[in-house]
């Protein structure tokens, strides 16, 4: 038990600040649509075919300056978001008129926070660091439950430490961690599984990573050049024919020459905010290559598709979002105070240390 306690403290001292940053940035991102203050940001969502086609034709009109993807407006944010290959982007209203532009994620606070939370502003390397921090967080919760059991009779829940002293912070850390352990496990597990898919096998079974990878893989198709003016009207009409009740969420142009145009749709039964119902269209003729219904995917994939909505509070409305806000703030508090008590705790004074020395009788 002493070795477990030592490992718990040392790992927390080394990785606690990363977890605190993830907790704070994630908490702010839970409410990001509410604090985007731009013209038309709170317009009512218009999702009919004519509006989608009109926006696409306006946005994609110039073959030399069109974006790589278009994320359409939602009920909580009335703006389309454009993403370009060089990392720049723009918001447009639902007719396709540009409202705001930026050259990098540093140009918009919500995009900066998103990249910080998902990549530590360091691309794939940062994502790996976050995944490792998530694994450490799972270890903290599980080992903390084991260590708490010995002192369970002294349990007393507090939202904040009674004093900013090391003993008070440690008691608060222990008891708050136990109360929020189920939600912390949910948050850390879902976040880590989205980075390291093999972690999902702990819940979904050993075959889950391979099944998920196969289900999300784009279909093989003949390489065709991207047309100067894809037939957006045909693309939207075909998508609606296959999934009449679904909402068109995302259009992506091929990242490599010869690839297909990709569309993501969200059916009413899906939890993912952008859905996982996928359609692929030939880049030159706009003909349908394949349509994939998210509701008919293997059960392991459907369960995996619930991880992000649960992690980011995209289901459950305001009550669940407030619960996850509490979890994010608790993770911030637990991580930051752990680092503070581990590295910057006050050392005993000389007088106190002298009083504890054994007296030698000559």
UniProtKB/TrEMBL annotation:
Transmembrane segments: 12-30, 128-149, 176-196, 322-343
Listed InterPro entries: PepSY-ass_TM (IPR005625)
Presence of keyword Amino-acid biosynthesis: no
Keywords for the protein's UniProt record, in alphabetical order: Membrane, Transmembrane, Transmembrane helix
The name this protein goes by in its record: Peptidase
Organism encoding this protein: Blastomonas fulva
